[in-house]
Specification:
elongated; alpha/beta; 7-stranded mixed β-sheet; single chain; 17 strands
Length: 318
């Protein structure tokens, strides 16, 4: 029987491991399919405190991992395939609530407490060139990567509040911003629509879909289709330096949705002033899997700290 199991190897998971290991909880961290999570889709991190000259995401994640390892965290490579929460196990001869986690369908781990830090994934259009240029002009986070496109031309895809916010943020940095909208209208709130439609640096392209991205080694343009499938369909090209997706995220919480409370999008719900998942003692969430709003590495790290402190307090109460 383990004290604490952590699922996820992004800033939230590693930070939780650092705090838990320093509290002598002997945490085990299951690293999952992608070390570093969404952070690994960018080329350089410049807004994480402690790296004044910026840092490559792999280096930052390696620093966090080594720090967690230094204090005694054990790491397990593999993907969690099954979870059973609030199961009865035996702790020091007494029947106690425990949680069961299977890695790759074969290895079973029983734990008194669990921190879920599985992150979220950005939604993409599904065109092949998105993958080709990921990290070389394609981004799903204007706050993370917008600085690299100062005084350049970029495009944002989406028609909701998030897309409008991203377009405005980028317009403060870039020479020009195209907002590519599939529908003939914006879904954003009226105030956000007014700001975007009246911004001198933002050009809204209604009823446009992206066919492909082009460029030599990096994004240099996009082929768009206007009114796809209609008699007046037209294909044209725009020159851009960056391509930002703002069509939403989906939290990586599928394994837990039948056992834990989530919102309509699947983000795990946590108690007020806590990282404790609602309705299941000893289970905590941290990072983007429970954060539909901020989605920043530093915020994820902070919630990982909170989750570890909450887990420590819970274990002491047993």
């Amino acid at each position: 029987m383990n004290n604490l199991l952590i699922i996820g190897s992004g800033p939230a998971g590693y930070t939780a491991a650092i705090y838990a290991a320093r509290a002598n909880l002997s945490p085990i961290l299951i690293e999952g399919p992608q070390l570093g999570g969404q952070l690994m889709t960018t080329t350089e991190v410049e807004n994480f405190p402690g790296y004044p000259d910026g840092v490559e995401p792999f280096q930052m994640m390696d620093d966090l991992r080594r720090q967690a390892e230094r204090f005694g965290t054990k790491f397990v490579s593999g993907v969690v395939t099954k979870v059973e929460l609030s199961q009865v196990g035996y702790i020091e001869g007494k029947a106690e609530t425990c949680h069961k986690v299977w890695v790759e369908d074969t290895d079973l781990y029983e734990t008194k407490s669990l921190i879920i830090a599985t992150g979220a994934s950005a939604k993409y259009l599904g065109i092949p060139s998105e993958e080709t240029y990921r990290g070389r002009g394609v981004s799903a986070c204007a706050t993370c990567d917008g600085f690299f496109y100062r005084k350049k031309t970029v495009a944002v895809v989406g028609g909701g509040d998030t897309a409008c916010e991203e377009a405005q943020y980028l317009a403060n940095l870039c020479e020009k911003v195209y907002l590519i909208v599939r529908k003939p209208f914006l879904r954003a709130s009226q105030i956000m629509q007014d700001r975007v439609l009246n911004h001198p640096k933002i050009e809204v392209l209604f009823e446009h879909n992206t066919l492909q991205l082009t460029g030599e080694g990096k994004v240099q343009g996009a082929d768009l289709v206007y009114r796809k499938g209609e008699p007046d369909e037209q294909v044209h090209h725009i020159a851009i330096d960056g391509f930002f997706l703002a069509i939403g995220h989906h939290p990586n919480t599928q394994l837990f949705r039948d056992q834990l409370e989530t919102d309509q999008e699947g983000y795990l719900k946590v108690a007020a002033d806590s990282q404790a998942c609602i309705g299941c003692p000893g289970v905590f969430a941290a990072g983007d899997c429970c954060d539909p709003r901020y989605r920043q590495a530093i915020v994820a790290a902070g919630s990982g700290c909170r989750a570890a402190l909450d887990a420590d307090k819970y274990l002491k109460s047993l």
